[in-house]
Amino acid sequence: MSEPRSDSGRWHAVVKIVLIYAAFASAWILLSDKAVLLITADPEELVMISTIKGWLFVAVTSLLLFVLLQRYWQQYAAALSERMDTLRLIETIANSSTDAIFAKDLEGRYLIFNKAASQFTGKSAEEVIGHDDYAIFPPDQAEKLLATNSRLIAANTVENLYEHVDTVKGRTVFSSTKGALHDGNGRVIGTFGVSRDVTERILIENELKRHRKNLEDLVEERTRDLQQAKAAAESANRAKASFLANMSHEIRTPLNAITGMAHLIRRSELSAEQRRHLDKLEGAGYHLLEVINAILDLSKIEAGHFALEDAPLEIDTLLDNVVAMLRDRATAKHLSLSVEPAGIAARLRGDPTRLQQALLNFATNAIKFTEHGGVTLRVETLEDGADDALLRFAVMDTGIGIAVDAQDKLFNAFEQADSSTTRKYGGTGLGLAITRKIAEQMGGEAGVDSRPGAGSTFWFTARLAKDTQAAVASTLAPGISAGASLRSHFAGARILLAEDEAINREITEILLTDVGLAVDMAGDGAEAVALAARNDYALILMDMQMPIMDGLEATQKIRQQPAGATRPIIAMTANAFAEDRLRCTAAGMNDFITKPFAPEHVYAMLLKWLTVPQA
User: Fold this and answer.
1) Predicted model pTM
2) Residue 410's pLDDT is what?
3) Distance from C-alpha of 109 to C-alpha of 191, rounded to nearest angstrom
4) Is beta strand 336-339 parallel, antiparallel or unpaired with respect to 374-384?
5) Cβ contacts of residue 300 below 8 Å, gap of 6+?
6) Intra-chain end-to-end CA distance of the chain, in Å
7) Which residues pair with 450 in a beta bridge?
8) What are phi and psi of 184, to 5 degrees?
9) CB contact set of 62 (below 8 Å; sequence gap of 6+)
10) Which of 429, 428, 421, 423 is nearest to 399 (CA)?
11) Within the chain, how many helices (H) and strands (E) appear?
12) What sequence ranges are listed for the domain PAS (predicted)?
């Protein structure tokens, strides 16, 4: 819709038309009178004709002015009606808003004041229109509002701002958009504003900020508490690990002396009764060692320090080893102990010690809880992939069986299916828990299938990598023990034994001289370093904890000697933790023997490193 012309513009056009018409009519009358006078030369007739023409002119002029004025009046009335409709529409829209909408002239007097503004201020539009802010607000607030109007007019801009003013609800916060108001020609004629009550929103935001700050403070406090708790737990774990390491060392050292002495005594002439007593002594010693190993293994697993070895595996050899270690126990109870052929063609890699430990836990329990029949070991392939294989190891027995409701707690630490079995059969209740954790470390799981009186099948799975390396040939000829091989090939080889405990030193010396090795002994690390500097040893056995200088420092000093860089140094220690093994490796040791040790294991370790060519 085109914009209607302004009132002053219309009246200017009307006056202009009337003046033009009057000038034209006057000229016409004058010219006409002169023409009549020339024709008639009668003044009276001229007067009469002029009078008639005058009235006719007035009549025509009046008619014409009436028509013109009526036309412009209609246009003005239509424009005025349109403006009123527009103003009523604007007023309706403004009054429909919950925001305060208003407009002011250049002096700050209100031109528009909607219902929401009236509700906020308690003033009707009739009371406000034509007045400024002093008629609504306290003087200090009115002064600020009028100053804002002046700034917006001077800058000819629009601003978004927050304003605090007194309303019927009390002190209210408004989020306002205010700016310069323009007419149709772009001239500034005042200001406009739209204000929204945001008091509640501000209160909520402030409350949220307060809660957020409180939450941040709480989180910070809890974080500090957790950090302190973590530090305390780590300190406790370190203390626990240190205690267990010391306990292990203090128990293993005399236990090594007990088992070593039993081994030496067995070589002498003994009566049948003495051999029975010695068997019980060795059995008690190995049982104590199993308990210590189980507690340490569980502690290492729970502390996350349980590391798996990556070495070539021979599954059939693993099964044969378990059978060999348990055959005497099975025979003593008149039980059969057999292995179903594994038929695993692929070469695999994994931790043979832990796999053997898991199988021993199952098989030992099977023999313990079986009175008639036998125990069978079985291995089968569940998955055979390109890079790995999932194997299932199972131990089946014909024993007492286990109730279904008791099977769930079997694999919990320190628990058995029936607490009365501890008295009858013995055991700590750790073996199955450790086996399950070993299986989980190997990417598998563990479980049991059993019914009371129908025997049990304990099983675990392990995911083992395929071994792409060539098979390593054994250093032992078939049927020949490590001790015999040492005696045949390395008799006279000179060995340095660094051991501070006199009994263990004596036992180890006897074991070494029994296979023809020459032994020099040192009672501490400093003595070992001095002997290594003076003599050329084929191999050094080094204890970790010794007075004056420990085995780790002694190893480092020996490695700095001209002939010490390639000399095999094997830790022989009661420190059985993985961290101890890592410390020994970091110090420069080649391998690790844990006390108490089996003589054949020591012989195998010596044979392994004496066979390695030295540069």
Assistant:
1) 0.49
2) 76
3) 10
4) parallel
5) 306, 577, 578
6) 106
7) 456
8) -65, -20
9) none
10) 421
11) 18, 17
12) 86-156
> Residue 152: what are its φ and ψ, rounded to 5°?
-65, -40
Name beta bridge partners: 496.
Answer: 520, 540
Comparing CA positions, the residue from 504, 520, 571 lying closest to residue 541 is 571
CA 200 to chain centre: 38
Query: Which of 507, 592, 500 shows the shortest CA–CA distance to 549?
Result: 500
Q: How many CA atoms lie within 13 A of 411 on its CB side?
A: 19
> Superfamily for 482-611?
Response regulator (3.40.50.2300)
Angle between helices 599-611 and 502-514 (to 10 degrees): 60
The CB density around residue 158, as the number of other CB atoms within 10 Å, is 13
Q: Return the closest-CA partner of residue 495 out of 509, 482, 481.
A: 509
Q: Are 189 and 105 contacting, i.e. CB atoms less than 8 angstroms apart? A: yes
Task: Give me 91's structure tokens.
Answer: 């007023």
Residue in the structure block whose two tokens are 């199988």: 359
DSSP per-residue letters across 55-107: HHHHHHHHHHHHHHHHHHHHHHHHHHHHHHHHHHHHHHHHHH-SSEEEEEETT
CATH number of 308-466: 3.30.565.10
Domain 97-197 class? alpha beta
pLDDT along the chain (615 residues), means of 10: 48 59 58 50 56 63 67 69 69 81 90 88 89 91 91 91 88 90 87 90 88 89 88 78 71 77 78 81 72 68 66 83 82 90 77 84 88 91 88 91 77 54 50 84 89 88 79 52 88 94 88 93 94 94 92 94 91 75 90 82 89 70
